[in-house]
Amino acid sequence: MTIVFFMDGVKYDMMKKYMPFLASLNSKPLQSEFGYSCACHATMYTSRYIEEHGTWFIWKKGEKSPYKWINYIPGLKYINFLPLKLLLGKVTRKLSKNTSYSGVPCLVNLPLKYWPLFETTEDVIWNDDKYKPEIPNMFSILKKEKVQHKIVALHSGTQPDDAWNEEGIVDYKNDKFVYFFIGYTDNIMHAYGENANESKEYFTKVDSFIKETYKKAKKDNEDVTILAFSDHGHINIEEPKIDINKYFIQEGKKVNNYIHLIESNFARFWFRNEQEKIEVTKILNKLQNEQLGFILDKEYQKKYHLNMNKEEHGEIVFYLEAPHEFTKTIWGFGKTVKSGHGFEPILPKHYGIFCCNKKLAQDVEFAYLTDVLPSIMVQLGISREGYILRGKNIINTDNAD
Ligand SMILES: [Zn+2]
Hints:
Radius of gyration: 22 Å
Bound molecules: zinc ion
Largest sheet: 7 strands, mixed
Structural class: alpha/beta
Distance between the termini: 21 Å
Shape: globular
CATH topology of the largest domain: Alkaline Phosphatase, subunit A
Number of strands: 15
Strand content: 15-25%
Number of domains: 2
C-alpha cells in the first residue's frame, strides 16, 4: 500500500524541527517551481514543466474572463470603489462554474477596467477528468491503470481538520493507493509565519496524523510506503512592503495606466504599444538597480522552464526578491501576511520536503516536483513507458540509502 501526504508550503527546516515522525524518515529538500502553488500542483501531478502544462499563475490574459460582463454595464468599469469591487467579485464567484482550488478570486487593487481582460488559468479541480485532458496526470493514470485508491480532502475551502475528518473513507484492507491533501499548512504559514506557535503546533499535529495513519495501515498491510511531500517552503516577509506605484510616480507615470497584474512578489505587464514597453522597462530597471529584484530574462526562462506564451502570461515579468512582497496587489494590501512563497526555488528557506520511509536515491541532492509522479508510479508498479515524464523515481533506486 502506498500512502501519499501532500502538505502545502511545509518548509524543510521546519519539518526537521517540528515534525519528529517525518524527520525520522529519509528525506531530501525539495526544489520548487518558480511560481505559486497552482504551478507546483500542475507540475507534481503531470511531471511536466510549467512551459508544457501552461499553469504559471492563477490569472492570464485571455478572452474567457469571468468578469467580461462588467463591460456590458455602461460606465461600471470606470468606478474604482473598493466595496463595489469586492461585491462584484463575490457575485461573479457565486455565478461562476469554476471548481478549481483557487476558484475566481477578486482582483482587489486592479482597476475594474482591466478585470475583463483576465481569465483563470484553471477551471476545474486537479482530479477532475477535464483537468488538462491532453496531459496524463496522477489522477487520470490511477483511473486508467485501475488502481484501487482514495483521494482524501482534495477540495477548495481547505480547513485545518479536513484530512483527519475525511480519513474515514480509506479502506486500509483493499486500497492500494491513498492521497491525502493537506492545504491548511500553507494558510497557517501565510497568517502566522515560521516563528509562531500556531504554525509549529499545527505542523506537529499534521506529523502525528501521518504517524498514526502509517500505524493503522501497517496493521492491514505488510508493506506500506509513506511519501510525504510539499510544493515549496515559506519565507517570512520583511518590511518595507514595496509599493511599485511609487517608482512610477517618480517618473511622472501611474502604474494603473498600464495593463498589469501585481501579485505578491511578481509584477506582470502587457503593452498596447512600444512606448509603454519603453516606459515600464525604464521604471523596472530602477527597481533592479536598487537590487529589489529582476526582470525574468531568457536565462531565467531557460533555467526554470518558463518559455511561456507572453501574450497570456505577461510580456515583461518582474520578480521582487525575498524577503519582500508588494503592497496593493490583486490579493489586497498584504498588511496581515507574515510569510510568502513563489520565490526563487534555489533559496534554502524556500525548500520544500520529500520524506519517505523507503530509501532515497543517493546521487541526488534535491527532490523536484517532477519526481513525485514517477516515484509514485514505481511504487504502484506502473511502467512509465508511453508517458512523457520530466522527473525520475528517487525511491528505492539501486543506489538508494
Ligand atoms: Zn503551495
